Amino acid sequence: xxxxxxxxxxxxxxxxxxxxxxxxxxxxxxxxxxxxxxxxxxxxxxxxxxxxxxxxxxxxxxxxxxxxxxxxxxxxxxxxxxxxxxxxxxxxxxxxxxxxxxxxxxxxxxxxxxxxxxxxxxxxxxxxxxxxxxxxxxxxxxxxxxxxxxxxxxxxxxxxxxxxxxxxxxxxxxxxxxxxxxxxxxxxxxxxxxxxxxxxxxxxxxxxxxxxxxxxxxxxxxxxxxxxxxxxxxxxxxxxxxxxxxxxxxxxxxxxxxxxxxxxxxxxxxxxxxxxxxxxxxxxxxxxxx
Length: 290
Fold this sequence. Notes:
alpha+beta, 9-stranded mixed β-sheet, 16% helix
């Protein structure tokens, strides 16, 4: 007959062994499940293309050849004319207003991908860019009211195993319910006044260059005569030295008064941004008589 004092250590050791085996099994299952997903870790930025960020990186910013409807083409040309004399045109980036989709994926900000089975997050290093959440849990589109739109929009995605090797290699995304007003790029080329546009994306690594990520993007928008498809490309730094903090408001030098925008000079006084610009209305201030 075994001594009770001898039984206790044996039971404790058995329990520890069982717990260790269970944890190993769970960890193995998790590792096996996670191995289905591609490795998109690191810091991503757009591939240099000799120009500023824009929707179609293969064409100059003011010559995108967008299939704009005539009324939006007129507004685009007016935006360019205003910028040529010192204004901002229709581009609202100077206000630190979020650019929204699809402009936020043009590689203006550094990006990071966090992949999990139910949702993939895309994080940005700018405070005016909210994270993107791409839901991959098989959900249906929710009913969203007009006041529930957001600048990143609502995104539902699906992972695809294109080559049948048991590992996902492409993320397909559809984004809806994006808040406006929005522009395609800093030229002020306008998007539709409504929030009914749809953006689809195909994200996948280059077959020969694993540090290049392709994004085939198609936008259906009521500013266009047809869907507009482009290919965006990002490059990866696997061991980024630094994740900076880019706070748009810190460098804000623009002052909006009514419908006019002025420049805040180094001596904390406002200056006109274009020739002949009227000064602010000072009717509520006591005027000093000379």
